[in-house]
Amino acid sequence: MYMGHFAVALGARRWLRPLPLAWLLFAGIEPDLLDVFGSLVPSLGVGDASHSFPGIIYAAIAVAALTALIFRRTGLALGAGLLVLSHVAVDYLTSWLPLWHGGPHVGLHLYATPRADFVLETGFIVLSLALYARSPDLRRPARAGLMAMAVLMIGLQAIWNFGMAGG
Ligand SMILES: [Zn+2]
User: Fold this and answer.
1) pLDDT (tens digit per residue) in 122-150
2) Which of the two ends of the chain, N or C, has the fewest CB atoms closer than 10 A to its terminal CB?
């Protein structure tokens, strides 16, 4: 999944407001960051551990522990850990991933059908921004900004699904 991860993190803000948005986004894409880090430093041997068991469990526990240490609230720590797990859960919709190293691959692999992926991720974006918009602490300008955010995210998703396919 591409923009859908950011959407999930934005939607989760409704329940995890004390956490900075940057922290929510970090937790939401941690497995992909680990992937990038692993390819930059191959000696770490990250491989497919970022998106398979038991690696994602370790990552969720690590992010939850870090959140507990920094923000000192158990509920927030749990939420951040769940965001890490949500990443791989929704990746199963769009990708074809090994359950564990050397294990069977599962997933719907919607990336192979860009239109279906676009519809799914746009749904995530609309739903999550609607949740975000219902946060009681949002002021009017922020609500207007959400519309621009939706357009930007759906545009980036469209480029991902349709713009790069021909290149
Ligand atoms: Zn991923």
Assistant:
1) 999 999 999 999 888 888 778 778 999 99
2) C
Tell me how far apart the alpha carbons of residues 147 and 142 are, in angstroms, rounded to a whole number: 9
Question: What is the rounded distance in angstroms from the CA atom of residue 44 to the CA atom of residue 41?
Answer: 6
Ligand 1 centroid–CA 29 distance in Å is: 7
pLDDT given at position 91: 97
Instruction: For residue 144, report the distance from its CA to the centre of ligand 1, in Å.
Output: 30
pLDDT tens string 15-49: 999 999 999 999 999 999 999 999 999 998 899 99
CA of 137 to the centre of ligand 1 (A): 30
User: Which phi and psi angles does 163 have, rounded to 5°?
Assistant: -75, -35
- Taking the whole predicted model, whether its pTM rises above 0.85 is answered as yes
Q: How many CA atoms lie within 13 A of 103 on its CB side?
A: 13
**Helices 74-94, 55-71: crossing angle, 10 deg rounding:** 150
| 92 Cα: distance to centroid of ligand 1 (angstroms) | 9
| Counted domains in the chain | 1
Q: Write down the pLDDT at residue 167.
A: 44
Residue 133 Cα to ligand 1 middle (Å): 26
